[in-house]
Structure formats: C-alpha cells, structure tokens
Amino acid sequence: MSSKVFVAGTGLLGGQIISALLDQDAPVRALVRPGTEPARMDALRARGVEVVEGDITGPLEHLAEAIGDATTVISAVQGGPDVIVDGQVNLVHAAEKAGVRRFIPSDFAVDVTKLDDADNFMLDWRRQAAAAYAGAGLEVISVLNGAFYEVMVGFMGLIDWEQSTLSHWGDPDQPFDLTSVPDTAAFAAAVALDPAATGTQRFAGQVLSMRQFHEAVQRGSGRTLELRHLGTADELRAEIQRQAGLTQNPFDYVALQYQWCMVTGKAKFDTLDNARYPHITPTSVTDFVRSTVPPA
Ligand SMILES: NC(=O)c1ccc[n+]([C@@H]2O[C@H](COP(=O)([O-])OP(=O)(O)OC[C@H]3O[C@@H](n4cnc5c(N)ncnc54)[C@H](OP(=O)(O)O)[C@@H]3O)[C@@H](O)[C@H]2O)c1
User: How far is the CA of 181 from the centre of ligand 1 (A)?
Assistant: First the structure.
C-alpha cells in the first residue's frame, strides 16, 4: 500500500505514533489545530513531518484538502463527544472525500466492543462514533491496547508514593491488559502500514492481575507498597453511582469507571494480536517503572 499516513492529534499518543511511523520510514502528514505554537510545528517539520493546520470539527472540504494524498488516516484525538463522535465522523467523511482507504479511530482502550452503555461514558462515545461511520466507504481498523502503563501508574490514582500504598478494587487475581504509550504507538503504526490488517486489533504489553501489577511496580521502583483492597467490583460500581450523584462532572469519576471495566474482566481481551508484529517487543511494567519512577 502506498503509505502516506495522516495523523490527527499530536498529543501524548499521537506524538509517539508519528515517531513510530517515522521509524518505519513512512511519510507522515500531521494535523495541528490553528494556534498551535510555531515551535511545536517546527519540531515536527524538523523530523520530516508535513504539518497542516485544521480542526476535525471544522469544514469537511478544508479537512479533505488537508488530508490530501494520504492513504491512511490515524486519529489520536482526545476530547468530548463533539470531538470523539461528531469530529471523528466528520474526519471519516473528509477522508472518504479525499480517497483515503483506511481509518484508525482514536480508540486505544480496553475492549470497548464488550462493554454496555453507561459502563464508561468516554468509551460509549467511541462505540457511538464506530456505529456512525460503520457504513463509510473506507476500511475502519480499531487498535486496542488495554490501559496505558503511564495511566496505571499516574492518572488512575492507584499508587500513593507518599503513603507507600497501591489501592485497588475487585479480585486481586483478575487479569487485565496493559501497554505503554510508545508500545501502543508502535502497534498502531504497524497496523497502519500492514496491508493485511483488518477489523479490531488487540495488543497488550503485559497481561497482569492487580497482585502481579503490585509486584511489578515494587520490583521496578525498589519500594515496598502495601497492597490495599478497597472493596469488591460491585462495591466499586456502587461507589461510582454514589459519586455520580454528587457531581455534574463525570470526569470526576471516570478513572473509577475505567477500573471497573478492568477489575470485572468485562473489557478483557479474549485474544491478542501481538504475534502479527514480532518485531515489537513490548517493555514490561517492571522496566517501565524502573525507567520512569525516581528512586525513593
Ligand atoms: N488506554 C489508556 O489507558 C489511555 C489513556 C489515555 C488516553 N488514551 C487514548 O489515547 C487517545 C489519545 O489520547 P492522548 O492521551 O494522546 O490525548 P492528548 O495528549 O490530550 O492529545 C489529544 C490530541 O488531540 C488533539 N485534538 C483535540 N481536539 C481536536 C480537534 N477538534 N481537531 C484536531 N485535533 C484535536 C489535541 O490537539 P492540541 O495539541 O491542539 O491540544 C491533541 O494533540 C485517545 O483515544 C485516548 O482515549 C488511552
């Protein structure tokens, strides 16, 4: 496949996807939003990336022009339903107009196909988007990676380094899927450049239970953390409902919704596609923590 790749979203994951594509010598065009700092655009151009300005919620003709002769579009945007649903649907229609052959949406999550509405409102948007562009005249390939290591060690709020605790809900022996951001990007780039890839591709850097994750974090950090059990998966569901009744802002409890999807096993991958790309050797949680968490 002639393979200029258009990447929308140059943040945490999108930036790494661009790096992974460049590592494979793929020509890359990146969409940055109007008002992006010139230094950021210059940094992309210095690496050989064509930079175009635009917004995926903007006029379709402008977006199609920005996509130009790319044959694959990868979306690594983040945002609310205006971006994830309406924006991505708009992007798909622009991609169709530009003659793009395949689209990789900004899924990059646990197995969204196994969830029900209201299990996780951010993942609901991804399923709504998928339903909206299901009939589009291009191939849609979803890349799923479980949880980012970076999120498990940070945003998820499991680890309290000051108190030396790792707190979790649910069965400590329930396995879940997790992958680092650079490894997710490497898999996404591999899928984008693989003419035989189709459907939903599922990858994991590691499949661990909370007990194993705790051991890996301890090994990597050289610290001892008390493993604290906060309650059952049902009690976590009740806690999410309690918090939903207290706030107008669902982002206050979305980390708990992600945890619920994981600790119940509901969004666990049934199979992995890692073996399609044997050149990618994902880093382990232990090595990730060793290289990112400062020693005590
Ligand atoms: N599995 C996991 O644990 C996990 C964790 C985090 C994220 N993710 C997923 O990874 C994907 C990327 O997230 P991220 O963390 O990389 O997000 P991020 O760092 O916030 O980057 C999002 C990018 O999207 C761009 N963007 C937002 N709205 C846009 C629009 N209307 N038009 C064009 N570009 C727009 C932003 O532009 P600016 O640069 O101008 O702001 C930014 O470059 C998302 O699907 C997210 O859900 C997964």
Answer: 12
pLDDT tens track for 202-251: 999 999 999 999 999 999 999 999 999 999 999 999 999 999 999 999 99
pLDDT tens digits for 174-200?
999 999 999 999 999 999 999 999 999
Could you write out the DSSP letters of every residue in 53-122?
E--TTS-HHHHHHHHTT-SEEEE----SHIIIIIIHHHHHHHHHHHT--EEE-S--SS-GGG--TTS-HH
Do residue 70 and residue 128 come from a single domain?
yes
Cα first-last separation, the chain: 49
**Residues 198, 59: one domain?**
yes
For the chain, the average pLDDT equals: 96
Q: Best of 57, 77, 104 to mutate for ligand 1, by most ligand atoms within 8 A of CB?
A: 77
The stretch 8-25 carries a mean pLDDT of 97
Dihedral pair phi/psi, residue 120, rounded to 5°: -155, 115
Most informative mutation of 53, 78, 269 for ligand 1 (most atoms within 8 A of CB):
78
Instruction: Identify the band that residue 1 occupies on the pLDDT scale cut at 50, 70 and 90.
Output: very low
Instruction: Report the CATH number at residue 242.
Output: 3.90.25.10
CATH of the domain at 21: 3.40.50.720
Give the structural domain span for 160.
148-176+206-292
